[in-house]
Design brief:
Length: about 90
């Protein structure tokens, strides 16, 4: 498809206009939005680190509780075994 001489002369200006509009959009909309997203990302990262620490502390607390229960069961079992040994 062959374009006419007027259209052929108009295409570079159209291309320049589209490129200029894209550049203006990037600098006025996308660049500030990038900073907002970066700030939100850092906030989310901090919140995730806090939640992971809380979860880790909760797991350690649960392990301590389970360890105390196991020790209590072992002590009771030792007492029962000692009482059974005395009866024999």
């Amino acid at each position: 498809m062959v374009l006419g001489p007027r259209v052929s002369k108009f295409i570079p200006y159209l291309s320049l206009g589209v490129a200029t509009a894209a550049f203006i959009f990037q600098t006025t909309v996308l660049y500030p939005w990038h900073h907002e997203l970066d700030e939100a990302f850092h906030k989310l990262k901090g919140e995730q680190a806090r939640m992971l620490k809380d979860f880790h502390d909760m797991k350690l607390k649960r392990f301590d509780e389970l360890e105390r229960k196991v020790i209590g069961v072992e002590r009771r079992q030792d007492v029962v075994e000692q009482a059974a040994a005395r009866r024999l």
